Amino acid sequence: MNNNNNILNFAKVFIVVDLCLIVFSITFYDLIWFLNTQVAFIGSLSVTIASFLSYRKNINNRISNLDTSKNMMTEDRDKIDEIDDPYDLYTEYEEIPEEELTPEKIKEIIDHEKKNVKKNSFKNTLFSAGGFVSIYRVIGYAFLIFGFFALNNNKLFLPIPFLVGLGVVPLSVLVAKFVFKTSQE
Fold first, then answer.
1. What is the distance between the terminal CA atoms of the chain, rounded to a whole angstrom?
2. Residue 67: what pLDDT?
């Protein structure tokens, strides 16, 4: 429920900031300025929403595929340890005495760790590919690029209002995060 409230709060901020931008554009400038800001705002907002949806789906898929039996829980852990450190992050590992560390042993440990890193980085890339190649995100970027070319081909493109429209979404997110974080404290 908290996640839905956060989404509604961000939506409210986007709407208020966009309404202020509309009033500012029409009052102080002309309809071409208004058109540039709105095309950029809608494009930027669609990319942001698409990124949010694709990464949320990616995280939910990872959570649903999480194998809790592979957690490195040892038998000597009691319930309090499992509550305090559910993923066994603070377990002390037995150090290898320095006299047993031969150059061959060190090389073997480094090779083993390199294999784990390569395996995990490929696995992470594969699992996160859905986040940056989602159809929603492609459509959002396509709308943004199409809007830019439509404005440019019709000789309506103005760079400053377009950049202002692009900047509304990231600035609104920052403002919303700051406002809602301070109101929760």
1. 18
2. 57
CA distance 74 to 82: 10
Task: Give how many domains the chain has, as a whole number.
Answer: 1
CB 26 within 8 A of CB 173: no
Mean pLDDT, contiguous 10-residue spans, the chain (185 residues)? 71 86 89 92 89 80 65 58 65 66 79 68 61 76 92 92 90 81 60
pTM to 2 decimal places: 0.63
Q: Among candidates 142, 137, 151, 135, which has minimal Cα distance to 39?
A: 151
CA–CA gap between residue 43 and residue 52 (Å, rounded): 14
Q: How far is CA 165 from the centre of its chain?
A: 21
| Helix (H/G/I), strand (E/B), else coil: 11 | helix
Instruction: Give the residue ranges of DSSP H helices in the chain.
Output: 2-28, 31-64, 79-84, 103-132, 135-153, 159-184
Contacts with 50 (C-beta within 8 Å, 6 or more apart), sequence order? 134, 136, 137, 139, 140
Where in the sequence is the domain holding 40, given as residue range(s)?
A: 2-184
